[in-house]
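Follow-up to my post from last week.
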Amino acid sequence: MSTGSEVTGSSSTAGRDRLLAVVRVLVPVVLALFVGALILLSFGKDPLAYYGYVVRRGLLSPSGLEATVTRIAPLLLIAAGLIVAFRAGIWNLGVDGQFLLASVVTAALAPALMGVLPWGLTMLICFVAATAVAAVWSLLPAFLKVRYGINEIITTLMMSFLGISLSNVLVKIAFNDPATTVPQTATLPVEDRLPRLFDTTINSGVIIALVVLLLVHLMMTRTAFGLKLQVVGANPRAAVHTGLSVGKLTYATFAISAGLAGLAGSVEILGVWGTMRADWNPAYGLLVIPLVFLARFHGAASLAFVVFFAVLMIGGESASRRLGVPHFYVLVLVSLLLIFFALVEYLDQRWRKRSRA
Amino acid sequence: MHGLLTEAFVTSLMFGAITAGIPLLLAGLGEQISEKAGVLNIGVEGMMLMGAYCGFAAAYYSGSFWVGFVFGGLGGAAVAAFMAVLCVRFGMNQIVIGIALTIGAEGLTALLHFFQFSRTYPRLGEVGALRIPLLSDIPVIGNALFAHHPLVYLAVALVFLMMWVFRSTFIGFNLEAAGNKPAALDAAGVSVIATRVYAVLSTGFLAGVGGAYMANIGAGLFIPFMTGGAGFIGIVLAMLARGRPLWVLFGALLFGASLALTTALQVAGLNIPTDVVQMLPFAMVMLVLVIFGRHSYLPPALGHPYVRGER
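User reply:
Got it. Predicted complex:
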């Protein structure tokens, strides 16, 4: 960890530190947007028109803003789970498979249960089942990590590819609704989905996501369990020596982070789509994993990045139709951001080291 | 009739296993070099994808598969150059940068393909297979094993070249020292940084050639995101092979065979949903990890940037 900001004696240095922190975030963002603009230029697109359109569509138009806020819900739930995992030093990169399997289970359960059980109970069962399925899907990587010390980056990714294919199999074969031409599950009627907020198209999933993020934050900072996870993450060997049962904590971490990815899938199905189509894979994990890095596993910073990228995604999706820039451009931006963040951090540390010497 | 069916099935499966296995082999061998030198190269998937696009575009415009492979390798090495500078030279987090490069390559190749070919997916021409005289006339296995593009034989030869390099050359010893005890290598007067940079660039080149093979020979066209986890399977191969190139070859053929099963089963007249068959290689990887997982080995200094005088 960096040791530079230990001395914060007077308020002026504290203020300067805060300013530096803001600069450390802003500089990479500006650099990434700038290099991204150069890439757009090299493809013969006008970057200012593109960025302008993205902001207008994703943030300033009422329908775009509603879509953006709706999109925040699944991204934030995935982020909340990843914060727990990354802080405990566990690289759960398989959230896309966990998300999709939970989505299938939700999409299959909800319409079937709705006729039999009251609405509230159906929603609750869907949430629990989705969370459980996703958590179970992370069991094997957790076992291999605890038992043989196998790197979970690889195993969670493998399970993710497996999960993506399996969820397609389930949609096409097990839960296919024969009434539709394209393979998809039975549709949940709009009035049975998660309630909408006020007169907008935003569903209450975003409230769930914010509450979960707050709970995760409290768990990690205010409870003994959270502290234990942080110890395991900071130094697993020391954690063993202090008598923590690292194995159990590892299983718990996998279950929480995968479970929340599952909850995200459930919220997306119950709130937005009401059904799951075959080959549907929004690959939110691919995007959220880097964002949580960028936020340094911090809740509020994750929220800020999620909002920023929800705007980019929604605006980018419209822009791909209107301006002919595929939404893959957002991936390039994320990559640039990660690289510039790491670079600024590196330069900052070097500068501090030199100023101390 | 029944005999003919099985013969066609076996030939198709073996041929397919090699076609699907070669990209995995090249990625796995490449990853092995990086890991030996102490760099966990998570970006190999991105390097493959960049190699696939560059290799395809070069082969498409030049009309030569060889030009394609060279540019594929260069494309992969270009992505690796970022890794070399950021992770080896500057000592940044290898996992974060590896993921960043994979995501970036995914986005960039998809954009490049869109702006170059719009929504079309042009195909390359016929593959110039090199039929090895006599051997390729053996029934069943002749066509399956000895009638491939020359690159296949080069890739297999590379396995044995690497065995020799690792076992009896200074390059091999330097790589090993860079991964096991970098300080000792430094004390011996060899630059740890340079050793690792060359290792990472070699990884990028091999992964890029693997990606180009996948696009040009395996598929005959480029589709965004087409590597679909092959680079990560390459990482698994390197992890399980414990530094031995021959094991990467065996593993690549095993996983290649499970990838090739779709077409082979169709040849045999069985129609299993593609989604089920797509699960096979990954299920195979997990199975292999469960069985042999305790034997996987990674060098002690893996993932740690080298800073002289720091422990």
